[in-house]
From TrEMBL:
<protein>
    <recommendedName>
        <fullName>Coiled-coil-helix-coiled-coil-helix domain-containing protein 7</fullName>
    </recommendedName>
</protein>
<dbReference type="GO" id="GO:0005758">
    <property type="term" value="C:mitochondrial intermembrane space"/>
</dbReference>
<dbReference type="InterPro" id="IPR048280">
    <property type="entry name" value="COX6B-like"/>
</dbReference>
<dbReference type="GO" id="GO:0033108">
    <property type="term" value="P:mitochondrial respiratory chain complex assembly"/>
</dbReference>
<dbReference type="InterPro" id="IPR009069">
    <property type="entry name" value="Cys_alpha_HP_mot_SF"/>
</dbReference>
<dbReference type="Pfam" id="PF02297">
    <property type="entry name" value="COX6B"/>
</dbReference>
<keyword id="KW-0496">Mitochondrion</keyword>
<dbReference type="InterPro" id="IPR051040">
    <property type="entry name" value="COX23"/>
</dbReference>
<comment type="similarity">
    <text>Belongs to the CHCHD7 family.</text>
</comment>
<keyword id="KW-1015">Disulfide bond</keyword>
Length: 85
């Protein structure tokens, strides 16, 4: 696998792999009719927005790494009672 593709598929780097895969599966199942998959696209967009805000806040607070690891993200989501998106 290409280095960039592996990076995007890394759970520590990309917090929205599940949402991305859902969008792609929906497109595949619906013959690439984007109108049928708008809920999946919205979920992915909200996921990216949520974790981007977390990353910005951590950067402002001087927390490294900017993006929480997969384990930290699970703890964050558990603390708020599940995915907010």
């Amino acid at each position: 696998m290409d280095k960039n593709v592996r990076k995007l598929r890394s759970k520590d780097i990309n917090p929205c792999i599940e949402e991305s895969d859902g969008s792609q599966k929906c497109l595949d199942a619906n013959n690439y009719d984007k109108n049928m998959c708008s809920a999946y696209f919205l979920r992915y967009k909200n996921c990216r927005k949520y974790w981007h805000n977390i990353m910005v806040n951590r950067r402002q607070d001087g927390v490294k790494p900017d993006m929480p690891t997969a384990e930290e993200r699970q703890e964050i989501l558990a603390a708020i009672g599940g995915k907010p998106y």
